[in-house]
Design goal:
This protein is of the alpha+beta class. It is built from 17 helices and nine strands. It has helices at 3-9, 34-38, 71-82, 142-152, 164-179, 194-202, 211-219, 232-242, 249-274, 276-279, 282-294, 298-311, 316-329, 333-343, 352-365, 369-390, 395-415; strands at residues 41-46, 49-59, 63-64, 67-68, 98-105, 116-125, 128-135, 158-161, 190-193. A seven-stranded mixed sheet has the order 1-2-7-6-5-8-9, sandwiched between helices. A hairpin with a 2-residue loop joins β1 and β2 (49-59). α11 (282-294) runs antiparallel to α12 and α13 packs antiparallel against α14. The chain is elongated and about 95 Å long. The protein starts with a helix and ends with a helix.
Length: 416
């Protein structure tokens, strides 16, 4: 399909309906010309360079998906109360210091050949959420683009993105480096990338963790006539040719929803972490426990696993095994072995590591060499079955298990 055909195919996507739910909170900008004014955009000029800045104000009472935008204030207050050590923690953070950020670029790959043509963000100012988008209307006006955008980073301490650590912010750094002698210094901001949190909680639930899939499934955000992100570069190049602002209306709306969804997503994941019983499904609680465990927060992970064992029968065996490993870290050996041996009733969910850990505990902690040998043999049998099932070469693993079995066999003989 030619570029012209693709543009024609998506013409129906690039019109913002006057009665769209996203227009309810719009406030007109200063007059520029009819089309730009309809898009709520006005010029920012720097010498002979000029870009357009689109600004929209939403009241904190505005609902975007599951929550009102102002719910983030409640979440930040709960982070302060919780004292949890977590990557998403809002402890000590003020709402006005958070910048929810997303870009649109001329390509999906990084590098100096990729230009950012739209820097979009949302932030809280007084009693409203401001969406501000800096649009590069002329490829030779990047200096003006970054002068304009960097005004928004003043007094910000944290950047909140979706895959921004890997893509958006490195791209900003690259373009800024090329202009560094003509623009203000790029601020050093702490970064909260919500993609990593979403993967922790939902990668097994969804086809992928793209924001476009997270929105309807988890945030209850449903887009209508949305311009796919892959079309943004094509529409931008068409705009550069036609100079018709309406060509970019769908791209602007797409980015606007993105930066609003970042607020809702941060709010929702924070509620799952802070108010697990009220907001997390059993699967989410299990993954949250694993997350805390991976962060070294063993005590909090232990509490979540213990609650799960009491409340969800379908995940009990999985939670028992995981909790056993937490007890092992806490040197609660008897409780760990009791959990693992209880989990053995559901052999389909038990892997070789469980038998191995049981063998280790009985050998080193309880000096019961017969039981240690028994579980070592079960571990070897399990690894051999897995090898046949997956057709994988596991000679090294088998040799390791065999050495343990030989050692334990000698000990049992010596005891008797």
């Amino acid at each position: 399909m030619s570029m012209k055909d693709k543009i024609s195919l998506y013409k129906s996507h690039i019109h913002i309906e006057k009665k769209s739910i996203y227009d309810t909170a719009l406030t007109p900008s200063s007059s520029w010309n009819g089309t730009w004014d309809n898009l709520h955009a006005s010029p920012f000029e720097l010498g002979d360079e000029s870009i357009m800045v689109r600004e929209i104000a939403y009241p904190l009472s505005y609902r975007h998906g599951r929550y009102t935008l102002g719910e983030i204030l409640t979440v930040l207050a709960k982070w302060d109360e919780s004292h949890l050590d977590h990557p998403l923690s809002g402890q000590g953070k003020k709402a006005k210091n958070l910048l929810f950020f997303d870009t649109e670029t001329t390509g999906l790959q990084g590098g100096t050949g990729n230009t950012i043509f739209l820097l979009g963000s949302s932030f809280i100012e007084d009693d409203a959420v401001i969406v501000r988008q800096h649009l590069l209307t002329d490829p030779f006006s990047e200096t003006a683009l970054y002068h304009s955008f960097l005004r928004d980073t003043r007094n910000r301490t944290h950047l909140v993105t979706y895959n921004g650590k890997s893509f958006d912010w490195p791209q900003v750094k690259t373009r800024h480096t090329l202009l560094r002698d003509a623009v203000p210094v790029l601020p050093v901001l702490e970064h909260i990338d919500l993609l990593h949190a979403a993967r922790r909680l939902w990668r097994d639930d969804l086809e992928s963790c793209r924001l476009s899939l997270i929105e309807p499934e988890k945030l209850f955000v449903f887009r209508k006539n949305d311009v796919p992100g892959s079309m943004a570069p094509i529409l931008y190049f068409d705009f550069l040719h036609s100079k018709d602002p309406e060509t970019l209306s769908g791209v602007l709306l797409h980015n606007e929803i993105d930066v609003l969804s970042l607020i809702t997503l941060y709010t929702h994941i924070s509620k799952i972490v802070l108010e697990t019983k009220s907001y997390a499904s059993a699967q989410e609680q299990l993954r949250l426990a694993r997350w805390f465990d991976a962060l070294g927060q063993t005590m909090y992970a232990t509490t979540l696993y213990e609650q799960l064992i009491q409340t969800d029968f379908t995940l009990r065996t999985t939670a028992q095994i995981a909790l056993g490993f937490c007890y092992k870290k806490l040197k609660r050996w008897h409780e760990a072995t009791a959990l693992w041996e209880s989990a053995l009733q559901n052999e389909k969910l038990v892997h070789a590591d469980v038998y191995t850990e049981l063998s280790k505990v009985y050998e080193h902690q309880q000096r019961d060499y017969e039981k240690a040998l028994h579980y070592a043999l079960l571990a070897l049998d399990t690894i051999k079955q897995r090898s046949r099932l997956l057709r994988k070469e596991t000679k090294k693993d088998i040799q390791t298990y065999q050495k343990r079995i030989d050692r334990l066999t000698q000990r049992v003989v010596l005891v008797h």
